[in-house]
Structure formats: structure tokens, C-alpha cells
Amino acid sequence: MNRRDLLAVAPAIGMMAAAPASAAAPSSIISMFRDWERLRADEDAYSDLVTDTPESAEATRRVLAIEDRIRAAVPTDTRDFVAKVLVMTVNGLFYLPDEGDLEFWAEARGLIEVRA
Prior knowledge:
mainly alpha, 5 helices, 63% helix, globular
């Protein structure tokens, strides 16, 4: 990710703070994001183990499965996109995808109607 990519996404993230909270039901991505948070907490309960157990492996499998579903979902608004960013970076622990991930950056540009 380069500086230009970050600047292209920044307005979309800023719009999220300015948007009023909706009384509508959460989107499927937001619902999955809430599930992901819960599943990550379950997985973290095994973080002190020295070796994997069947339970810890299952917790990790559930996290990875929901992450795959979130990545495949198409965001409909900035909240969805930011939820995807949090999942893809594990709450900022890892970097955003580079410019080779064309679909991800197309979603970002699409939310703020920027042409590639």
C-alpha cells in the first residue's frame, strides 16, 4: 500500500464518522463482523496454550471461515468497508492489501466514486 492508496480511502473513512447512525437492521457484513469479534475472543481464550488442542483448532477454523465470508461480501457503505478493513488487518495488526488486490481497492474507490 502506498500513500496515494491511503489518501484515496481516507475520505470514505472520514464519511463514516459524519454519517448519522441508522435505525435500520445492521448489514450482513456488520452482523458477521460482530460474530467475528465474538469468535476472535473465543479463539483468544486459547492463546496461552503451548500446543494446539482440538478445541483451539476448531476456534481458529471458525474465525478463518467467517473471515473468508466477510472478505467475499460486497460492502454497501463505508461501515461495511471499514468492518472489512478491521477483519483483513485483524484490528490493525497487519497491513492492508497492496495494489495487487484489485477487488479490495475497487471496493474502496467505488464507495467514494473514484475511477482507477
